[in-house]
């Protein structure tokens, strides 16, 4: 693994971990940009599942795991900018240093990383060749995020003061180890406040503001080939989010596939239940083949 700073934002160094890089002067290789989840509030670039990382590298990809600034200290436009800047870096400095073919780049993300993967499909200047979204979402201002969530409302109610104890003024890129940030996310979902806190705008009164950041509203004939994977028993991101995204891709004539994991929970591929092991393994095989064939 090699770690490089792809961008600085004030005092923050936004970094990428690079795996499977080619030696200088070697043949250019395709790349996968991997984007972590965590509701844009938590997580970091180290969250990739080791067995999946190994499969990507063995298949001949350079894998680039990126950090981005986290909400609510950083709002959605700057988070999207970080993702865009990661691609600019990879196609210039990164390509030269690590032997990446700038014309062969795929994107993989999980949950909120799946959302950012889909966002990259219409916001990155030169669109990636292919997108793979694990339990992601294409709409960020719908009722599922803008109203109190029935599942999260079954948890003990959190007060705002308790929920916000991990939130400050300083921007950050690493929210992996702080359970208080998970409480903040829970409070957001219990109160339907995620779009407001992450975007800085009210989704009902200012719905149009969210349009540039909603992939389902920005599918065009230039959108990349896309694979969606989703468990139909997820309690965090509704299965319908991938169904809706698939319908928008179909309407625009974009090559796409959707893999449903029957009975699969959110993050179905992380320590899957015994009865899902074979199904999840097959789904990942298909995801890898999709990337190999299209990137």
Concise structural overview:
The chain is α/β, with parallel strands linked by helices.
CATH secondary-structure class: Alpha Beta
Based on helices, strands and strand pairing, what is the structural class? alpha/beta
- Listing every helix as H and every strand as E from the N terminus to the C terminus, the arrangement reads EEEHEHEHEHHHHHEHEH
The separation of the N and C termini measures: 22 Å
Going by CATH, the architecture would be 3-Layer(aba) Sandwich
Write the CATH homologous superfamily.
Answer: Alpha/Beta hydrolase fold, catalytic domain
Q: Give me the count of strands.
A: 8
Radius of gyration: 18 Å
| Major beta-sheet overview | 8 strands, mixed
Report the principal-axis shape: globular
Mean of residue pLDDT values: 94
Strand content: 15-25%
Which spans have pLDDT < 50 for at least 5 consecutive residues?
none
CATH topology: the name is Rossmann fold
In spatial order, strands of the major sheet run 1-2-4-3-5-6-7-8
Helix content: 25-40%
Helix tally equals 10
- As for the number of domains, it is 1
Reconstruct the topology from this structure.
Blueprint: E1 2-9, E2 12-19, E3 29-35, H1 50-58, E4 62-66, H2 76-98, E5 100-110, H3 112-123, E6 130-134, H4 143-146, H5 160-163, H6 179-191, H7 194-199, H8 207-210, E7 225-231, H9 239-251, E8 256-261, H10 277-294
Parallel strand pairs: 3-4, 3-5, 5-6, 6-7, 7-8
Antiparallel strand pairs: 1-2, 2-4
Structure description:
The protein is 36% helix and 19% strand. The protein has 295 residues and is an alpha/beta fold. It has a single domain (2-294), classed as 3-Layer(aba) Sandwich (Rossmann fold).
């Amino acid at each position: 693994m090699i770690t490089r700073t792809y961008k600085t934002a004030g005092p923050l160094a936004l970094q990428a971990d690079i795996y499977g890089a080619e030696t200088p002067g070697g043949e250019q290789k395709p790349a996968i940009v991997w984007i972590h989840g965590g509701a844009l509030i938590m997580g970091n670039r180290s969250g990739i599942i080791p067995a999946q990382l190994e499969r990507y590298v063995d298949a001949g990809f350079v894998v680039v795991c990126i950090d981005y600034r986290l909400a609510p200290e950083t709002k959605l436009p700057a988070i999207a900018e970080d993702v865009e800047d990661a691609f600019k870096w990879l196609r210039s400095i990164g390509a030269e240093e690590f032997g990446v073919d700038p014309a062969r780049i795929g994107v993989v993300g999980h949950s909120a990383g799946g959302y950012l993967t889909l966002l990259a499909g219409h916001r990155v200047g030169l669109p990636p060749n292919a997108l793979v979204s694990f339990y992601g979402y294409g709409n960020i201002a719908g009722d599922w995020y803008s109203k109190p969530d029935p599942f999260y409302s079954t948890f003990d109610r959190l007060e705002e003061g308790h929920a916000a104890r991990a939130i400050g003024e300083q921007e950050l890129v690493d929210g992996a180890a702080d359970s208080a940030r998970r409480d903040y996310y829970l409070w957001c979902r219990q109160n339907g406040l995620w779009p407001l806190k992450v975007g800085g705008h009210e989704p009902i009164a200012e719905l149009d503001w969210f349009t540039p950041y909603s992939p389902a509203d920005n599918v065009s004939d230039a959108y990349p080939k896309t694979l969606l994977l989703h468990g139909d028993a997820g309690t965090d991101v509704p299965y319908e989010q991938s169904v809706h995204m698939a319908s928008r891709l179909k309407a625009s004539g974009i090559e796409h596939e959707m893999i449903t994991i029957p009975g699969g929970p959110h993050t179905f591929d992380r320590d899957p239940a015994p009865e899902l092991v074979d199904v999840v393994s097959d789904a990942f095989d298909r995801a890898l083949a999709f990337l190999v064939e299209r990137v």
